[in-house]
Design brief:
Elements lengths: L1 E6 L1 H19 L5 E5 L3 H17 L4 E4 L9 H4 L17 E9 L3 H11 L6 E9 L11 E5 L7 E5 L1 H4 L3 E6 L2
Parallel strand pairs: 2-3, 2-4, 4-5, 5-6
Antiparallel strand pairs: 1-8, 7-8
Helix pairs in contact: 1-2
């Protein structure tokens, strides 16, 4: 695949800072906030955001993960992967939840995550944060906080690389040769 950088490491850092500021403005009381990452890259992105939010808010931000695999309606199309355990550090009841994913595409993963979230409690409000919106929605779901909109073809792939996982940072567009 042909790989083209869309966001450099410094650009990605500035985008994460902007998203963290927008989240703080949007939720009001950051003590009611809980970040919930969607595996795999959404979990790592939620960890990065939690650290930035902690620095801005001056106190720790609750952060966890939620695997929506068993709530998907398209498993035969996308296939299965090893399911990761859901790890929520606190009750969701009455909290402001920010679902975090690296890339939003068809919206089916987020739809499944919203369904899975309901089994863990009733949040006061659920927001969606995506680093990249690449279009091609199949369900009417849009991010509340979005790092970048990058229109793609269905054959292209967006890769969000994070230092803790990939030993590099940036956002890349992958095109078939």
């Amino acid at each position: 695949m042909n790989r083209r950088e869309v966001l450099s490491a410094p650009d990605l850092g500035r985008t994460v800072d902007r998203l963290a500021s927008q989240v703080l403005e949007g939720v009001g009381d950051p003590r009611q906030l809980i970040l919930v990452g969607i595996p795999t890259r959404g979990v790592a992105l939620a960890e990065v955001l939690a650290a930035r939010l902690q620095a801005m808010a001056g106190h720790p931000i609750d952060q966890g993960s939620l695997d929506p695999t068993f709530h998907r309606d398209d498993l035969e199309r996308v296939g299965t992967r090893m399911v990761q355990p859901t790890d929520l550090p606190a009750s969701l009841e009455g909290r402001q939840v920010v679902l975090v994913d690296d890339v939003i595409f068809t919206g089916r993963t987020v739809r499944a995550a919203l369904e899975a979230l309901q089994t863990w409690g009733r949040p006061r409000r659920v927001y969606l944060l995506a680093m990249v919106d690449r279009g091609h929605r199949e369900v009417p779901i849009q991010p509340d906080f979005c790092g970048r909109v990058i229109p793609t073809s269905r054959h292209e792939v967006i890769q969000v690389a994070l230092q803790g996982i990939d030993a590099e940072e940036g956002v890349f567009l992958l095109r078939p040769d």
